[in-house]
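Narrative progress, year one. The postdoctoral researcher (J.K.) led the effort to move from monomer predictions toward full complexes, under supervision of the PI. The following entry was the first complex the group processed end to end, covering 466 residues in total.
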Amino acid sequence: MTRYALFLGCTIPARQPHYEVSARKSLAKLGIDLVDLEGMTCCAPPPLQSIDLETSLSMAAYNISLAEEADLDIVTLCTGCFESLAIANNLLRENAKLKERVNKILSNAGKEFRGNKEVRHYLQVLMKDVGIDHLKKNVTRKLGNLKVATFYGCHSLRPSALLKFDDPERPKLFDNLVEALGAKSIWYRNKLKCCGGLLRGYADDIALAIARDKIAMATKAGADCLSTLCPFCFLTLDLGQFLMKSTYHEEYNLPILHYTELLSLSLGIDPKELALDFHKIRVDKVLSKIS
Amino acid sequence: MTQAECKVVKASEINPRFKYEISKMHGAEKLMRCFQCGTCTSDCPIARYSESYRPRQIIRMAQLGLEDRILDSDTLWLCASCFTCTDRCPQDVEVASVIRVLRNLAAERGHIPQVFREQFSSILESGYAYKIPELRVKRRELLGLPPLPKGNSESIRKTLRGLKPEKFFENNGGY
């Protein structure tokens, strides 16, 4: 059994229990033990970094220090959390001056950032600790006819120099993991472009225009569904289709599924256990295609 | 600002030290390397749909020292932090980080858009970006999810006390 400290973040518990359920069930089935640590806070994402870098790095380092105390590496389900924590982890390891400043701040709470633990996105954990072959052996329901448009999001891939997740221009990790489930990963235009999610609330019109492009391109390429790795991308593209209907009078009805949901289905977990009613765009089309 | 709104630059508007000052800040060290090729703007998902947001223009304005124009502008807050510009810059300027540095300076002047302000306040108060609704906590139980681990708002508040943002919010009723 491989153990990780689960970093849950804010958006998943507040808005997407279906993501958490599918992640916990599927990762447990594959032998990944997720440990819930007390005292974790927000990851200090880009909006916080925009206001003050020192504050955001300290907050990220605070969370990492909790995992260090528990002697566990961190796994995140949210790509945004992955980015915030991994950037802080790598930056503070490389930059002694910043590390010293942050540790001075953390000493107010009796904490210290050492930099001896890793921050991983769960896709990296699947690849490293489970592996494609073992994953394939556990698939009981092949997603044979399903055409999946994978969407990496921004903060898994970039800034690539600090995140080192995959080739930022030709990533394969997610596509390989989708194909391991027997589905087909399809290419679509602007696949690597942002979903616009971080502009929601500040420039809603631009955010929606960007999301619409993503949905339109995946639909045009013949996708049965689009798969996400981040609760924010999910929200922008799932709920976003309602807004596209009212703003542009366009109806796409493209189901958006987290990778863990596809994974759970292929591992034979009953769809009734997956709280799929949290999806704004119904996923029945996907279910009927794979059962 | 749109191209049409661009005003003539007056010498009095220029802070010739600005580029040196920000080049000392983490993330903006390579500002002076930019040779205005425009890769950042052409690959920017926002520039494609926005009338005003052009990362190349912001970088040039920073190099020129148009401090007030940049820091007092709403346009600065349109970056979605996708880091495409940073990744693709042939001169290795960390464009998104330069914009982050500029936002940090704008925040010091009290220019923080409402939505950023609210999220920031919530994080510093509760430790989370959003309040988790009671209803959702109940639904978690029904789904068989483990209880949410305890937060630590007290400890995080203690940690961050006295940092810069405390001052940004001073005149706005605290965090």
